[in-house]
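RECORD TYPE: inverse folding
INPUT: structure tokens
STRUCTURE:
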């Protein structure tokens, strides 16, 4: 009896070890795939306007002979964690555009792995998590954010880390400590984003797992997150509203900025323009969310997207970069829809809107490729190849949809990744 017990326990431990090893390999593989996409040809793009503030701060830290002491004595606003990370990379690899953008690429790549981890916590099988991470990785705004030295990649990484800790804490309360601590990191990056995203996390907890709100670990994490904020002199309650405005902490999130739109549909239009080909699946994904609204993943998607979009749409300042924290949720939503479609196989036809949408994209890309290869002056072979890759990806996926072949999902994921990689190589 004891022998059988030990044998059974050994088999169970081997199975658990194998599962853990698989998760580690998948997470590492996604991280490396993202790092290749975000890090390829990283120094070829000239310094962008949005990178100017970070570059100036880092150069001041790097060139200051007295370092931190002079920084504090001048009474300047404390630099962000990203600025410090870039300054550290400078000390190792020297000053260059590549070194300045590397921390952003690393943080954005880590967020891809965290989206996969979120999917593993939300869904009973691995497939939706893999699809969610793949969709998130191949969203154009995410690729752009991961390749520029801005605060966006840091916010994406910390926010996905927050949600991952929140979801893990449902199985192990000790993970609740990380919720408040990582929200504190978001506030160290941009206070206003930390407040809004923290409110979304609390609403989801109240709706899905209210027992966690009484956990000592959760409030311990919030205290630990608040402490560095007070030290960093960026805790909002220590300042009046006017001080926040004068210090530049509030703009451009709460107040109108140079690039602004008064349209309440601005963010919906932005998502529609820059999330192809995955925007084709949004309508059916919304229907799937409603049908599964009693499950945790749907509750998180509803709280995340609705609260965030409503708050952003009501604010006067509307910038496309403010939309970035919603893209992990879109990855989860479309990943769930793709996993559902994977199981349809030959049992039911795929929606016509998918066929028409991907077919239209494929034909548009094909005409664009022909234009750059024959009509443009001068002829641009780089973009002809990029558009041809995107066009054939969508056209092949369309044919597979017509044939009710679930492999269209793999074609879309792989083709989108290759097309983005080719477009990055075309930047020179």
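DESIGNED SEQUENCE:
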């Amino acid at each position: 009896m004891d022998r059988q017990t030990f044998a059974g326990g050994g088999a169970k431990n081997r199975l658990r070890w194998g599962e853990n090893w698989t998760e580690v390999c998948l997470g590492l593989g996604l991280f490396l795939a993202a790092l290749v996409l975000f890090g390829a040809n990283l120094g070829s793009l000239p310094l962008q306007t949005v990178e100017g503030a970070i570059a100036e701060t880092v150069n001041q830290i790097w060139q200051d002979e007295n370092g931190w002491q002079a920084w504090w004595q001048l009474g300047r606003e404390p630099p962000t964690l990203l600025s410090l990370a870039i300054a550290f990379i400078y000390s190792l690899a020297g000053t260059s555009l590549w070194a300045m953008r590397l921390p952003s690429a690393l943080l954005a790549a880590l967020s891809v792995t965290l989206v996969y981890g979120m999917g593993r916590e939300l869904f009973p099988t691995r497939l939706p998590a893999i699809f969610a991470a793949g969709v998130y990785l191949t969203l154009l705004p995410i690729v752009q954010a991961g390749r520029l030295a801005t605060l966006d990649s840091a916010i994406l990484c910390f926010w996905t880390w927050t949600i991952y800790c929140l979801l893990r804490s449902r199985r192990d309360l000790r993970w609740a400590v990380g919720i408040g601590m990582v929200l504190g990191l978001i506030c160290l990056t941009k206070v206003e984003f930390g407040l809004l995203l923290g409110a979304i996390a609390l609403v989801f907890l109240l709706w899905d797992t209210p027992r966690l709100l009484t956990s000592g670990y959760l409030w311990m994490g919030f205290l630990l997150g608040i402490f560095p904020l007070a030290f960093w002199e960026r805790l909002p309650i220590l300042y009046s509203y006017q001080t926040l405005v004068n210090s530049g902490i509030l703009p451009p999130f709460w107040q109108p900025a140079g690039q602004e739109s008064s349209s309440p549909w601005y963010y919906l239009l932005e998502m529609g323009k820059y999330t192809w080909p995955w925007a084709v699946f949004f309508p059916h994904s919304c229907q799937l969310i409603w049908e599964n609204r009693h499950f945790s993943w749907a509750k998180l998607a509803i709280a995340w997207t609705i609260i965030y979009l409503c708050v952003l749409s009501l604010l006067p300042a509307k910038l496309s970069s403010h939309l970035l924290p919603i893209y992990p949720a879109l990855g989860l939503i479309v990943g769930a829809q793709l996993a559902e479609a994977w199981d349809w196989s030959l049992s039911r036809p795929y929606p016509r809107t998918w066929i028409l949408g991907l077919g239209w994209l494929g034909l548009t890309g094909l005409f664009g490729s022909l234009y750059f290869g024959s009509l443009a002056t001068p002829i641009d072979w780089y973009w002809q190849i990029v558009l041809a890759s995107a066009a054939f990806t969508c056209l092949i996926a369309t044919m597979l949809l017509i044939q009710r072949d679930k492999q269209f999902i793999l074609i879309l994921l792989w083709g989108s990744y290759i097309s983005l990689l080719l477009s990055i190589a075309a930047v020179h």
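NOTES: Confidence is low (pLDDT under 50) at residues 1-15, 68-76, 233-259.
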